[in-house]
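Report of the visiting student (M.T.), summer placement. My assignment was to run the structure pipeline on a short list of targets and document each run. The first record concerns Site-specific recombinase XerD.
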Amino acid sequence: MASIQTVLRNKPNARSLYPIAIRITKDRKTSYIFTGQYIDKMEWNEQKGLVKKSHPNALSINQLIFSKLSQANKRLLNAESDREYQSVATIKTSIVKKERFDFFSAVKIQLRRLEERGQFHQRDVVKQRMAKFKAFAKADKLHFNEITLDLLKRFEAYLKNDRGLAYRTTVNYMIAIRTIYNIAIGEKWAERNHYPFGRGGYTIKFLESQKIGLTVEEVKLLEKTEIVTPAQQHALNIWLISFYFAGIRIGDVMQLKWSDFIDNRLRYRMGKNQKLVSLKIPEKVKPILAHYKDIAVDDFVFEELRMVDPKDAKTLRTRIKTVTRTCNRHLKNIADDLRINKNLSMHIARHSFGNISGSKIPIQMLQKLYRHSSVTTTIMYQSNFMQDDVDDALDRVVNFQ
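After the run finished, the C-alpha cells were exported:
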C-alpha cells in the first residue's frame, strides 16, 4: 500500500526558499510531485504538513495543499485498484498524467529550475525560443503526442523562410524543444513511444562551425599599437590577458582578483563548470597587471564588477554582457585602424590561441590549457586550426613540374 504526505524538500532555491512537495512512498521507495510553492523553512509545520499561520499566504497555500492531496489520493486509489503491481514511479506517472501535463507545462518548470540554479541567460534564451514555438503552434496547451515530425518540419521551415534565421540558429531552436521533451521523458511526464526525434523522426544535423583566430603577426600588431584611446587600451588589455592565459573567458577575466595570483601563478575557479585552474603568469601579462595594481582600490583587478554582488547571478550576468559589448565595440575600432580584416572580439582570443598553437603543442597539453574534460573535445576544437598536414599533402600532389 502506498502513502501520500506533504513535505518540505531540503534543497532551497536561489532565494533560500524550500519547495513544498507531495511525497509518494511505496516499498520503501519515494517519489515527489512538486506543488510549485516555496517557503522559508521556519514557516513550515512538519507535524501537520502545512504552512504555519504566521505566513502571509498561509490560508491560500494550505488550501492548495489540501486540494492537491485530495486529487492525489483519489488518483492513487484508482491506480492501486488495478490488480497489476505498480511501482512508486508508475503511481506518480498515473497521477501526473491525469492532470494532462503538456509540453508548455514542462517548459514552465524548466524555466523555473534554470532560474533557481542562477542560469538566467539560459532561462531567457529558452523562454524566447519556446515563446516562438508556442506562437507557431497556436495553442496554449500542446500535448507531447501532438509534437510530430510534421509539426517540427513545418516549424523549421517557418524559422528559415518566414523568420529568416540562419541554419545554426534554427538548429538551436530544435535542440531546445528536444531538451524539454527529453526532460519530460526522464520525469515520466511524457512517454517515449511518442518521441519525435532521432531515427525515423526529426534528425538534428550540425554544420561544422568555422573558427577563425588571429595570426602571430596580427597579435603582434595589437601588442605594439599606440593609436588607441584609454578606453580602447583597456579593452585591448582585457583581450590580451584572455589570450595570454590560453583563452580564459571574459566572464572569468572580469572577476579576477589580486588574491587569485599566488606564487607567480593564476589560481581561479572557472565560472562555466566550476573547475579549478592553475596557470603560470606569462611575462607578457606582468606589465599589464602592474598597470592595474598601481590604480587598484580593492581586490578586483578590473573595476567593472566592483559594485556587483557576486551572489546576485542575474545582475552579474547582465553586467558582464554589458562589459563584453563595450569591449567588442572598442576592439572592432582597433581592428579597423590596424587593418585587421577579422571580427576582433573577446571570443576570438580563445580561437587565436588555438590558431597560433596549431600542431606545435601535444594535444594532451592543450587539453590542460583549454580546461577541457575530454581530450576528444580538444581534438575536435583544435582540428579547426591544425592544417599543416593537409596543406603539405596538397602540395605534394599539385606541385609537380
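The chain is about 50% helix and 10% strand. The chain has three domains: 3-98, 103-194, 217-357. I thank the supervising group for their guidance throughout the placement.
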